[in-house]
Amino acid sequence: MQNQKKYLPLILGIAVAIGIFIGGKLNFADSSDKLFSKNSNKDKLNKLIDYIDYEYVDDVNTDSIVDVTVNGILDNLDPHSVYIPQKDMARVAENMKGDFVGIGISFYTYKDTIAVIRAIENGPSQKAGIKGGDRILMANGDSLFGKNIEDEQIIDKLKGPINTKVDLKVYRKGEPELLDFTVERAHIPITSVDAVYMLTEKLGYIKINRFAETTYKEFKKGLDQLIDLGATEIALDLRDNPGGFLSIAEQIVDEFLEDDTLILFTKNKRGSIEKSFATNSGDFEEGKVFVLINENSASASEIVAGALQDNDKGTIIGRRSYGKGLVQREMELGDGSAVRLTVSRYYTPTGRSIQRPYDHGNKDYYDDYYHRLESGELIDPEKIEVADSLKFITPKGKVVFGGGGIIPDVFVPIDSSMQNETLTYLQRRGFIGNFVFQILERDRTAYEGFLKQDFIDNFKVSDDLVIDFQDFLNIRADSNVTFVAYHDEVKQYIKATLADQLFGNGSFEEILNQRDIMIDEVIELSKGD
To answer: What is the distance between the alpha carbons of residues 494 and 332, in angstroms, rounded to a whole number?
Structure first.
C-alpha cells in the first residue's frame, strides 16, 4: 500500500531542506575508548537529567527533554546533522531501503473507509483479485472503517511478516454481498524511478525521485529498456530529488563516465581524502546525457550533475541546484534512535565544494528558496551570484563555480503557469486526487477500453469535467478557489491524475511533461546535435 501523493516543487522546496541526507561510508579512526571518553561537560549533562528525573517538583518526561537537548545540540552544528527519534526510525529506514512488506495497494481513506485507488502491478493484492474502487472493510476480523481510524492504524493492520496471510472483507460496487480475499504479504517496492519512456526516437527519459538502496537497480533496468528501444541520448530528470545514498549516486554516474574517471572525493576533519573513480561497468559511456536540475535538486543529485559537468560529459539543464555538499553518517544512540551526523564534505572532480553557507542559522538556510525567488534568480540567470574566487576549469576549458549548488550549462526559468500557488494548493491538499477518484467511482467502465499509451496520446479532458471540478471545490475547499487563468493546466493535472490512478507506471509524469518547458528545451537541444 502506498499513498500516492504528488507534491509540486514549491512545496518540496521546504521539505527538501529537512529530508536530504547522504549515507556516508567513512569510519572514525579513533578507538571507541577515546571517542567516548568521559569529560566534565558530558557528566554535567547527565547529572542535570538525573536531577530533573529524581528531584524536580513535578513529574517530567525526561525522554522528551533528551530529545530536545539532542536537537538543540545538532541545531548548532549544521543544517543537515539530524536526530531520528525511535518512533520514526522504521519509517525512515523503510523509505531508504526501497521496499516494505505489505499487501500492495494505493489507497485513500475515503468517507471513513479504505478505498483502493489501484492495486500495485504484480503485487499480492492484484494477484488475489482486488481492484481499484474496492473498499476494504475488515482485516483478520478487525474493522478498518470509522471516523476515528487513522492511516497508521490501517497500515499496521495490513503490514506484517513476509509470506503471512491476511483475510480481507471487501465491498465492491455492484456486488450484492461482501467479497472475501486472502492476500499473502510480500515485499512491495517503494519506487524511486518515477518514469521511463522515449521522448523522441533517439532520446530516452528517466526520472529519479531519490537515491535509495534499490535506485541503481531500478535505474539500470530503465536504462537497458531505453537502450533496447534505440536511445542514444538520455534525459536524466533529477528535479526535486533531495538526494540519498552516496554510493548509489556513484553507481549511476559510473554508467556515463569512462574507466578511471574521477567521480568525486570526500575530505573529513582530519584532512583524510577518499576518492571515487568510474569502473569499466558503464553501459552508456558513448551516449549523450542531459541532466535536469532545479533549486530542489540536492545532495546525491548534485553529485551526479557535478561529476558529469566537471568531466565535460553531457549538458546540465535547468536552474541552480540546492547546494548541499556535506556527507552524513548514521549512528545509533542505543535506544532505537539515531543521529545522522555530518562527517565529511564532498568535492566535485575539479575540486569545488557546492555547499552553500549556513553561518547565518538554519532558518536563513531553509529560507534560501524564497531569497532566490525574490532576487529574480529563478527567472534570470544574470541574477545568480557567483564568486570569482570559486571559479574552476573543466578539462575542456569550461568555467564552473563552487560555493552554492550546481549552476546549469543551459538555464531554464521557472514556469509560473505550472508552478503557481493555486495549482500547488490543489495538489497538496489532495483535491485533484479526490475529485478524480470520485469521477472514476461514477463509472469505471467508461475507461476500461483504454490502454495506457492510448489514454496518454488521445484522451481529452472535457470542459464539463473542469466545471465539475470547480463545483467540487466550491463544496470541499476551505475558501473560494478559482483557476480561470489556469484552465488548460488544470485539465492537464486532471488527466495526469486519472492516468496515475488507472495505470500508474510513470503515466502521471509523461502527461505533465507534455507541457514542461524544460523537457521542451532538452528536445530542442537533442535536435540540434
So the answer is: 44
